[in-house]
Amino acid sequence: MKAFVTGAAGFIGSHLVDRLLDRGHDVTGFDNLSTGFRRFLEGAQANARFRLVEGDLLDPAAVTAAMAGADFVFHLAANAEVRVGPDHPRRDLEQNTIVTWNVLEAMRAAGVRRIVFSSTGSVYGEPEVCPTPETAPFPVQTSLYAATKAAAEGMIAAYVTAFGYQAYFFRFDSVLGERYTQGHVSDLYRQLVEHPEQLDVPGDGRQRISYLYVRDCVDAILLAAERCTEPVNIFNLGTGESCQVSDLIVWITGHLGLAPVVRYTGVGSPFILLDCARMRAMGWKPELSARQGIVRTLEFLRGNAWVLEARA
Amino acid sequence: MKAFVTGAAGFIGSHLVDRLLDRGHDVTGFDNLSTGFRRFLEGAQANARFRLVEGDLLDPAAVTAAMAGADFVFHLAANAEVRVGPDHPRRDLEQNTIVTWNVLEAMRAAGVRRIVFSSTGSVYGEPEVCPTPETAPFPVQTSLYAATKAAAEGMIAAYVTAFGYQAYFFRFDSVLGERYTQGHVSDLYRQLVEHPEQLDVPGDGRQRISYLYVRDCVDAILLAAERCTEPVNIFNLGTGESCQVSDLIVWITGHLGLAPVVRYTGVGSPFILLDCARMRAMGWKPELSARQGIVRTLEFLRGNAWVLEARA
User: Fold this and answer.
1) What are phi and psi of B199, to 5 degrees?
2) Active-site pick, A124, A145, A168, A211
């Protein structure tokens, strides 16, 4: 396979690049390094089958040129800063919707027909059915992040019909592990670095939350892309299990050997638990538990202080 | 009300402008005249409460400036050329999705909080439930037109949550009447003008189709906007009744006094029949039947040959 990976220097993208190279594929990574890190690709750069193209997905000519010769696109680039949505709405539109359209058009020009797209479990909003299967209807959207991801899914699906593409949508739960830099767990870790004696936690501690280890995530993507032959293939991707936020806090503080005063601040995110039976039915199962994934994440953050500095 | 109408020189937009002026509102029409016609606004132009701003919705500064002072946006501008989707996919993305985002941002700048959006019944794809209610789930999209309209709905709904907007979505059936210039009926009419002895009709004649008269459509929009107070108000908008294509052909040829050889060409569009009970429950009902609407459309096309020339 000649893979083209957008967001290649990002958290999940860089793990996908590594795994594709491990399996003997050729990989072109495309990234503007706005939120990704060149250091995440140090291993890949040592491999002759990898090249990194530094470019912007908002520049159609650049994407098209870089994609020449590819036969499979893994479109992982996105605005990962879910929470800043309302302050910078243009970012969601551009980074989730418009760039996806540019990728689809570059594929037309380059003659590529297969695409993996990293969507999100938040397209289901606050679903009535929990765990939520892939067949659950989309709600009236309430977040720009989810709305622009759902928009991208719709455009890709329309291209499948119009141009004979084949698409794989992965609606992710929270993913973590090595190279995780943004989100709930790094926010908590950062607080404990700055003031180990106190920890402010969103919600009331009883919210449930679900985590998938990044290498398990990448394995699932590659398995589904290998096995599934429908024009549009949609998968929820998570462990299908959840933990309570208060347990998460115990795991984190326990692993770090800290005993902070924990203050629950009240407002929390809606709970999503994805029904991942479709993915498991293919024989995939996560190798690491949520707790093991958390430990890997903490070890990574502890060993790479530069990440939190870069995100400050 | 100080109304701001995008697509004001278009088919439905110009009728909406007329009706708003009739009711004593101030109206700013915004149109780039790419598919709309200045002639459709001749009546409105004679009214001191109307002004037309010729501008492009892809130019955020132009929309923002024109919107100053408005308190209600009617966003009707769109890529109405549903059928060219796959040949000019950028047009669907730009005209249905990106311009909607520009309108939403202009509203933020201008302090406008209420928006009517012209969506489409085709967001339901080929629905399992027929007639299809507003609560039917969206399918995996198959048309770029529907995908980009659904994307716009999602973005607007996200702005409702993020910024306290109030939104009205109207998922239209086929609309016709005076100033109708593009679609099934004008295609048939054009053929009969060019060669009255022969008529090629898509499908096999047994497809069913539903038509709403444009003034009934505009009345429904204004009624719902007046009465409904939810943050997001979604309405299917059609008569809720359908006719068979073969009946349509009899009505058209009968009205024109022609007896062409009719040839059914096989491929037709999927059938959509919207459940319009929600709209009717407000006391609205269409005044004209589909057949009466067809006659008005034919009379308009017959009296305005310039329209078909302009669309040639």
Assistant:
1) -140, 120
2) A145
Q: What is the CATH number of the domain that holds B202?
A: 3.90.25.10
Which are the contacts of B92, defined by CB distance < 8 A and separation ≥ 6? B79, B85, B144, B145, B147, B148
Q: What is the pLDDT of residue A83?
A: 57
Q: What are phi and psi of B54, to 5 degrees?
A: -85, 115
- Are residues B49 and B195 both part of a single domain? no
Residues 10-29 in A contacting B (C-alpha not used; CB under 8 Å): none
How far is Cα A221 from Cα A113, in angstroms, rounded to an integer? 17
In the annotation, is A145 catalytic?
yes
Flag whether A59 is in a domain: yes
Contacts of A2 (CB under 8 A, 6+ apart): A25, A26, A27, A28, A69, A70, A71, A72
Interface check A104 vs B, CB under 8 A: yes
pLDDT tens string A133-169: 999 888 888 888 899 999 999 999 999 999 999 999 9
Range of the domain at A203: 177-210+241-272+282-311
The answer, for A87 touching chain B at a CB cutoff of 8 Å, is: no
Q: What is the CATH number of the domain that holds B171?
A: 3.40.50.720
Statement: residue B146 has pLDDT above 60? yes
pLDDT at B61: 96
- Whether residues B217 and B259 fall in one domain: no
Query: Is residue B268 over pLDDT 70?
Result: no
On whether residue B278 sits in a domain, the answer given is no
Q: What is the pTM of this model?
A: 0.92
Does B119 touch chain A if contact means CB atoms closer than 8 Å?
Answer: no
CB B136 within 8 A of CB B150: no
* Residue A186 within a domain: yes
pLDDT at res. B231: 97
pLDDT for the residue numbered B81: 67
Which pLDDT does position A82 carry in this prediction?
Answer: 59
pLDDT in tens, B75-122: 999 876 655 456 677 888 888 899 999 999 999 999 999 999 999 999
Is residue A217 located within the same domain as residue A202? no
Residues A291/A251, Cβ–Cβ less than 8 Å: yes
Residues of A whose CB is below 8 A from B142: 157-158, 160-161
Pick among A82, A84, A142 to test the B interface (most B CBs inside 10 A): A142
Count of structural domains within chain A: 2
The reply to whether B224 and B199 lie within a common domain is: no
Neighbours of B191 (CB within 10 A): 15
Higher pLDDT, A250 or A84: A250
Same-domain status, A77 and A224 = yes
Q: B263 and B156 in one domain? A: no
Q: Tell whether A158 is within 8 A of chain B (Cβ).
A: yes
